Amino acid sequence: MENETCNLRKIGGPGRKPRACAECKKQKMKCEVPSGGHKCRNCWKRGTDCVFDRLVVPHAANNGRPHPAANPECNCGHNLTLIREDIRQIQASLDVLAGQKMLQAEPTSHHESPPNATIAAGEALSAREFNLRMAMTRENSPEANGNTEHNGSSVTVEEPMGSLYEVTRLRNIRSNKAKTVRPATERGQVQDLISRGVIPLSEAESLYTSFHTSLNHYLWVGLEQTHPDFKSVRESSELLTATILTVTALHIPTSAETFDKCYKEFLLLISSSMFSRYHSVDDVRALCIAAFWLSEVSWKLSGHAIRIATELNIHRSFSRAMEGDREHFLRARLWYMLYVCDKHFSIAYGRPPMIAESLQIRDHELFLQSPFADALDRRILSQVSLMQILTRIYDRFIEGSKGLTQENTTSAMLADEEGDFDDLRAFNGEIDRWRLLWHARQEHNPFIGSFPPKGIILYCYFAKLQLNSLAIRGVSLSSGQLSTQRKEYVNLAISAAASILTFVLEEEDMRRALVGTPLYVHTMITFASAFLMKCATMWSRVMGLYIEAGYITSLLERVVSLLKTSVTSDRHVLYHIAFGLEKMLAKFNTNSGVTIAQGSRQAALRTGISGGDNGQFAQRFPTDGNHVAFSNAEWGAYTGPVDAGAPSFSDEFSGNLLFEAFGSGSANDVYDLLTSQLSY
């Protein structure tokens, strides 16, 4: 075989053989090639390439040694190795090209290779490497099951983007939702932060186990129903893997360094996904999970998840789910989860939502009749039902309000008219009925205890605070005493705010769940704290709301203490909430002249919500609005005389203090919520 390879060099090809190389022709020198050599003598001496027609003979190797082929002795074994390597590379390239042709010719395939996915055999690309350049590529062939109309068939009319695709055939504007799924990862080809060595597999598995037994249940993720183990998660979605590890590391005190590594990878994947057309349902699930817990990016991730979900037609899975399709049932459940996520932030921030009130949302009770529905769905749908009520409240009082704007906050959102207060009373009744209905449907959870039924009570307080605080929103401080009706609902808001804090402080399962609950819970606890502080400083005597500042102080001190003990990392938003509230409370105590001895504070606690001889909450915060628990003398003992010309704490509370406490770092979203809710 080696002799045959050597003899191949003596056999001339078709046509006239070149007499001289390009360099010798240029120099007009005689070109002589030694027997068995690849270079002429002149090129060999100069160390240049010896080019005969289309044949290029490489020059000497790195250290100046002549190429083996330039040796008069024929190194046939080396040549044979080169030939075999060339054949192997050609075969690998042909295999890749053949695979791409098969994917393009497959008319019923639900997966499509991205236009820039031409990779060498045995290699796999990470999801973040797909979108490095713009690829205006055309489809090679029309869809086999396209919209071609035949005799007897119905007329089909494409949506506008579909018509644009029909004309241009550009992949990147295709509107066929079934083709926007990333190709499934081949066995053994997982590319993620673990395979790249960012964190070890053992640590990743430990984080996944922690997520599976705690956070997974606070957020109704139901990951165990879609993936039996961590390996399945990794094979399904690199983004879901990074999200789970990032969110879990955030909640573990010893994983601060791991969180930083995972969060960096997570952001890279998110950045890549913004411009990718290849997504999976688990990518949407990952974005939703991240939005509920990662405060700095929550609003952006919520919108991104909804856009991808609509590309994948997840919003149209409800009808198929009602027909008994389990896969579409899980997709419809995910759409409910996205709806709740969207409403949590849109209502809290006072921003318009992205998801409309579709048939699936309006008829959510039908979803519970599915044979696949379980306790997880009853928890999700309880949120859906409550968000529907809050949406109607938003549409009635906030969206339709013309008086209260950023430029003009002196017009009351609710007029002193029977219509507004009648609607307010009706909405309070709706929230009470919601609590009765959904509390009875909740079950004890083996991982998070009594949080599901008690969470209904907590969210009821949240809704009552958001609703009844509208009664004071926009009311001018110079307007004097509030009307009897308005005072009734302001006192209901005060009662709800104090109930939120007390409920979290006194219920063991709520205290344990505090750090793991989604961002919405943390923001509402912050809102309740700031609302009570604002009531005690800005509106109390001016508007006839006589609140015991000492009780508010002791309650908030307990809340700050609980938040500090619950904090797992300085990256967690609770750390910044505790710091911000403590700073505000110190300013509140200094400027309000509140100096309460330890014994007075204990007395306040004994006569407050915690119980005691006369410890009913209604005695301290009456709910009818017509009677108050504290006299002017009692309130004056805490506040002291007011100098009308001196700067007050209330002036700073409106802007500067909120910004100092929450206006930077991971608590920036909390600041946005407070400024939107406390713009009174």
Automatic annotation (TrEMBL):
Pfam families hit by this protein: Fungal_trans, Zn_clus
Top-level taxon in the UniProt lineage: Eukaryota
Coarse class of the protein's main subcellular location: nucleus
Entry GO CC: nucleus
Location relative to the cell: Nucleus
Coiled-coil regions, chain positions: none
Boundaries of every Zn(2)-C6 fungal-type domain copy: 20-52
One record GO biological process: DNA-templated transcription
Keyword vocabulary terms for this entry: DNA-binding, Metal-binding, Nucleus, Transcription, Transcription regulation
Protein name as annotated: Zn(2)-C6 fungal-type domain-containing protein
Organism: Phomopsis amygdali (Fusicoccum amygdali)
